[in-house]
Each structure stands twice: as C-alpha cells, then as structure tokens.
Amino acid sequence: MNRREFLRGLSAGSLLVLSGLSFARVKEEEVAFSYEVTLPYRKDVKLWLPLPADTDYQRLVSLSFEGSYRRAGTYRDPVFGAPTLYAEFSGNVGDKRIFVKMRVRFRPRRVSLIEGSHPIPSDVRKFLEPSEHIPTTGKVAEIAGRITEGKRTPIYKAWAIYEWVVESTYRDPKVKGCGPGDVNSMLEILERGGKIGGKCADHSSIFVALCRAAGIPAREIFGLRVLPAKLSETLSIKKGAKDLTKAQHCRAEFWAGEWIPVDPADVTKIRLKEKLKPGHPRLEFAKRYLFGNWDHHWIAYNWARDFVLEPRQNFVPLNFFGYPYAEVEGEPLNWLEPDSFVYRIRKLS
C-alpha cells in the first residue's frame, strides 16, 4: 500500500463506516476524578499513585489530597519523569487512607503522516533501548526485519509492524488488567506456533519492541479511560458512568519527526466486542484511524517501563506504572487483588 492509497483508504473508510461522525469537531475536554485508597494493614506502608502527565495535548489543572499518611508529596523519576503522588503510612495507624482529587484538561490527538527520514533527538534515543520486558535482539529483531523488509521510511515500517500486530494478536478477556506486557513470553508463544493473546499492554509492548528492533523509537503510554469512546461504544466507559476503577488502558506511539499515536489493542478489542470478521469495513476503518490518532476519551499517565520509582521502591524494577503501587514493609501488593489492595477511581465531573 503506497501513501496515496493509504490516505485514500482512510478517507473512504471514514465516509463508509462513520459518515455521520466528524472527528474534526471533537473539542477540548476537562475531567475531574478521584482516587480513594484503603490499605488495611497494621504495618508500615508506602504508596505510589500515577498522576496525569503534562504534555502538548494534556495538562494537569489541579491536584489535592488528604488522608492518614505520615508524609506525602509529588515526585518524578529521573529517567522517564513519570509524575507520582507518594505517601507513607505508619504501622501504628489503623486503616491507611488517602483521598486524591485532580482535574485534567486534554485535547484530541491526531497527526499528519509525513514520509521521510528524520533525525532522532538525544532525549528520544532512550526509546530505542531494550529493557527486561522489551527485548530488541534475537527473535524480535528477526521478526521486525521480515516485517519491514523493503520499507523505506519509519512511517512505512511502523505501518507494517502495526498491521502485523493487529493481524497476529487477539484480545483475550481472561487476561487480568492490561496484561503483563512481557514480550519475551509472547515470543515463546510464537515459537510454538501460537497466536498472541492478551490485552492492551501486551499488544502495545510487542509493537514497541518490533519498532525499536527496526530502529524506530517507540514507547507504551499507560493511562485511564475517562469518557465514552466515539469510535466504538465497546472501547470505554458508558455514558454517565462514574466508576473508573477498571478503566486503565495502554496505548503506544512511535517517533517519525514527532510522536505518532497508535492503538493496536483497541483494534483487537473492537474486533472481539463487535464480532467483526477480517476485512469488515468497520474494522478496516478502526485500523486505519488508530494509526496516527487516538480516540478522544483517555488521559495519559506515563511511558515508564522497567524502572525505579521516585522515591525508590524496595521491589525493583517496576514493570510499568498504570495502577496504584504499594509495599507493606517492603513487600509489594498485587494491585489487581481487591481484598488486599482496596482502591476506587471515580469520575467527579
């Protein structure tokens, strides 16, 4: 597919599938939401909460917090700058509680797909590096080389990788949370001739690993769905819903002169939830739209992977930071286990 065909296909898909919906009219949004965390331990507890990032498409407007903590404050780690609210609780206090309110303003994310080779800035180069869960050599490099063979520019290469991820993975509703995002385990499945199941962190992670192996800086971005989706009602919360506790979602982006947003996981989610067959016009539109755009219902936390929080956690490194993270006397809690780690995320307005 050349660039003209790609763009023509995107336009045709828009008219065919969503003729009554203009994404160009999507306005800037402002959303307030809260965290309420309860930790039922008579021991020393440390808690780290991900906060919304400040970017060119999003701004944290206000933040306030109160609770039974010994001390609390906001921090950023030195490598990725992940914004964090940190709190410490003394063992002699009963239930450890913190209530956090924040307001975020954000706007639509879409870019022009401009061909060409672009220099990679020094601060972007770290997103070419491997990490514990994101390998860039061996099998992943072999697959990336095969997928991108003959492709001339980062846009063409990234599209080929994105299309491969969408076609070679499926959404597995049995996976907890966003999935572990462990590319090493996914490669083992491929070695056995299987197809990669998982959720958003899994599909975004394999996209990122393949891009990095092909020489394209890329990163996952962890965040939260806070509004109903416009592309498909199956993607996000329902209209009027307030509970955001299980609304975490991981997206991705790659560098081609600027950060280009993609969301392969939401393509696989639409395919499952709407029971669409390969080649269906709605599915083809979603695939094209979510390469260079994000559906305007989500806020970003951070793009940190396999890293050390600030202040430093005892159990290091942390795989990713899309959920609250806590340690009881140095031992990590399972953020997906509600009996031991009780928290609620609620939309306020």
Q: Could you give a short description of this structure?
A:
The protein has helices at 3-17, 139-148, 154-168, 183-191, 200-213, 264-273, 281-289; strands spanning 29-39, 45-50, 58-67, 71-76, 83-89, 96-106, 109-110, 169-171, 196-198, 218-225, 248-255, 259-262, 293-294, 298-302, 305-307, 318-320, 325-328, 331-332, 342-347. The protein is α+β, with helices and mostly antiparallel strands.
- Beta percentage is 25-35%
Q: Give the N-to-C terminal Cα separation.
A: 43 Å
Q: Briefly, what CATH class of the largest domain?
A: Alpha Beta
Strand order of the largest sheet: 4-5-2-17-18
CATH architecture field of the largest domain: Roll
Structural class: alpha+beta
> For the residues shown, what is the average pLDDT?
91
Count of individual domains: 2
Biggest sheet features: 5 strands, antiparallel
Number of strands: 19
- N-to-C series of helices and strands: HEEEEEEEHHEHEHEEEHHEEEEEEE
Number of helices: 7
**Coarse shape:** globular
> CATH fold name of the largest domain, please?
C8orf32 fold
Q: Any idea what the radius of gyration is?
A: 20 Å
Give start-end ranges of low-pLDDT stretches: 1-23
Helix content: 10-25%
Protein name: Transglutaminase family protein
Pfam families: Transglut_core
InterPro entries: Papain-like_cys_pep_sf, Transglutaminase-like
Domain Transglutaminase-like: 192-266
Commentary on this structure:
The chain has 349 residues and is α+β, with helices and mostly antiparallel strands. It folds into 2 domains: 29-107 and 308-347, Immunoglobulin-like; 108-301, C8orf32 fold (Roll), CATH 3.10.620. The chain is 23% helix and 30% strand. It has helices at 3-17, 139-148, 154-168, 183-191, 200-213, 264-273, 281-289, and strands at 29-39, 45-50, 58-67, 71-76, 83-89, 96-106, 109-110, 169-171, 196-198, 218-225, 248-255, 259-262, 293-294, 298-302, 305-307, 318-320, 325-328, 331-332, 342-347. The strands form 6 sheets. A 5-stranded antiparallel β-sheet has the order 4-5-2-17-18, with no helix packed on it. Strands 3-6-1-19 form a 4-stranded antiparallel β-sheet, with no helix packed on it. Helix 3 (154-168) packs parallel to helix 6. The relative contact order is 0.20. Residues 1-23 have low confidence and may be disordered.
